[in-house]
């Protein structure tokens, strides 16, 4: 594994989040890390993707995407500091991971929203002259960002996206972030009833596409609605 590949998260780790949590080297209690403590990457590429995301995503989905970035960065900083990927690459993946759920995109293809979103994102990033390894890393992560399970491997970029999305969407692995971190992130990027919004997206995807990848997660909409960790912030 070259440092160049590692920069974009191309390092294999177990797909099982339980294994990752149990075997992490840094098991200290989570400490407060606030939005201001986490640098937001800035570059012409980031600026263009932020503009694209703001234009195409609903405000609720955009805010979710940004919460995923901050939660993920806090989790890696404290619990998996050995994962040395580019924060810019992770931000791009966060901004685009739900692009397949827009009203237009979810109805314009038979593909599962993650697969279509990955394709859209790969084409977009290539058109913006992103590094091929970076664009493919984002695509891989988007395609697999709901690929939860106990066998096989995923990339570090996908793993942190798993941790952050299931934290925000279902309240899982809440011990990996301090409550003050959640308060800070939600203050900057409010949930605005995200629980009901995302549960609705899950049901719409499964109704439109009964073969969808989302159907792999049993009672997923109900799991989202049972998110006790984020209930008071909705």
From TrEMBL:
It comes from the Eukaryota. InterPro entries: Cyanamide_hydratase_HD (IPR017771), HD/PDEase_dom (IPR003607), HD_domain (IPR006674). CDD domains: HDc. Residues 61-170 form the HD domain. PANTHER family: CYANAMIDE HYDRATASE DDI2-RELATED (PTHR35569). This is HD domain-containing protein. It comes from Recurvomyces mirabilis. The lineage of its organism: Eukaryota, Fungi, Dikarya, Ascomycota, Pezizomycotina.
